[in-house]
Amino acid sequence: MIFPNRLTAKLTGHGGPVHCVSFSAGAGQYVHLTSSYSETLTTDDLLQILTGSSDRTIRLFNPLKANSVSSSVPVSNTKVGPNSAASQAPGLIQTYSAHGYEVLDIAVTDDNARFASVGGDRQVFLWDVATGKTLRRWAGHGGRVNAVAFGGEEQQVVVSGSFDATVRLWDCKSQSAKPIQVLEDAKDSVSSICVAGCEIMTGSVDGRLRLYDIRMGMVHVDVVGQPITSVSTTLDTAAILVSTLDSTIRLFDRANGQILQSYKSHTNSEYRIRSCLGLNDAVVVSGSEDGYLYAWDLLEGKMIEKTKAHNSKVASAVAWNGKGKEWASAGGDGVVCVWGMP
Question: 169-176 long-range contacts, Cβ below 8 Å, gap at least 24?
Fold first, then answer.
C-alpha cells in the first residue's frame, strides 16, 4: 500500500497551538473579500483547509499556494493583525475572528457555505464562509465546548458537546437562542461528536460511547472503559473509530458494539488526540503526544507509517480530504502540515 507521506505544504501564521483542522467538504467555492478586491476560489482545482487555534482565530488556507519548504514564523513571535506576519502567511485566504478564547473544533457544511466553531468561550458560532461574518451565536453551555458537528435536514442543526457533560442541538433556521434539545446522559466532559443521518455519536471522558437515535428517542451505550478523545465513522457508517487515553484506537461494529480491530504504538495518555480514516477507509491515521504521526492498515491493524512532524511537539489533530489522497496534521508548534502521495 502506498501511503501519502510526502510533505506538500506547511501552513503557518497561527500564534499558538492548532487544535483543529478540517478540509472543505466538497465541490463549491469560497470568496475572499477585502476593501480593494475580491477573489473567487473554486474547489474544483483547489484544496481549502480551515484551522482553529489557541490564538482565538480560524484561518482558511489554500495549501497549493503555500510553499512546503518555506520557513515558519516562530509561535512565540507571531502576532495577529492586518499587517503582521500571520496575516501574510503563504496560502492564507481569510481569517475569521470572533472567539474570545481558544478554538477547539470546526465543522463545515457539505456546500461549504457555512461552518460552525466552538471553543473556550462556551459559545457556538455559525459563520458565513464568503463574508467572514457570524450568522448566529448560541450560548448555554456551562463550560468550554469541545466538539461540534452539523446534522438534520439540509444540515440546519448544529450539535455541540461540552466540558459541562451535555450535548446541545441548535436550530439554524430558528431565531430562538435556546437549544431545541439537550442530551444529559454523559457523566463527564463530552470530547467528540459525529453525526450520521438521524444518529448522533458522542465520546466522553466517562469512557462511554453513546449512540443517540434522535428519530426514535433512544440511546445505546457502549462501555469503552477509557476516556475517549476522538470519534469518527467509516464511509458506510457501519463501524466507529474511537481513540482513548490508554494509547489505543479501537474500531467498533456499529450494530453490535464488538471490537473489530485495535491500533497501538502511538502515545495518548494526557491530551485530546484526534484520529481519522483515509484512503477510502483503508487506513487509520492519528496524531501522538511524542510528536510523530502514525498510520495503520485498517483491516490488519499493522502500523504502516510513522512520520516525525511538528518539531517533536504534540501532534493533536489530523484530517483526511474526503475520498482523496491528501491529509493534514496540526499540533503544538502552530503549524499545519499537508501530506500527499510520494
Answer: 170/124, 170/136, 170/138, 172/114, 172/126, 172/135, 172/136
> What number of other Cβ atoms are within 10 A of residue 296's Cβ?
24
One-letter amino acid for residue 251 of the chain: L
What digits encode the pLDDT tens for the residues 292-332? 999 999 999 999 999 999 887 899 999 999 888 999 999 99
Phi, psi of 55 (to 5 degrees): -80, 5
Q: Which DSSP string do the residues of 38-83 spell out, in sequence order?
A: EEEEETTS---EEEEETTSEEEEE-GGGS-TTPPPPPGGG---STT
pLDDT tens digits, residue range 86-110?
557 889 999 999 999 999 999 999 8
The arrangement of strands across the sheet holding 6-11 comes to: 6-11, 336-340, 327-331, 315-320
Phi then psi for 155, rounded to 5 degrees? Answer: 55, 45
Q: Whats the size of the chain, residue-wise?
A: 342
Give the full edge-to-edge strand order of the sheet including 303-308.
275-278, 283-286, 292-297, 303-308
Q: Which residue has the cell 466552538?
A: 118
pTM (two decimals) = 0.89
DSSP 88: G
- All three cell numbers of 129: 464562509
Q: How many C-beta atoms surround the C-beta of residue 35 within 10 A?
A: 4
CB 51 within 8 Å of CB 66: no
Instruction: Tell me how far the alpha carbon of residue 106 is from its chain's centroid.
Output: 6
d(CA 250, CA 180): 32
Contacts 24+ apart (CB under 8 A), 132-139: 132/33, 132/94, 132/95, 132/96, 134/98, 135/172, 136/170, 136/172, 137/98, 138/168, 138/170, 138/177, 138/179, 139/177
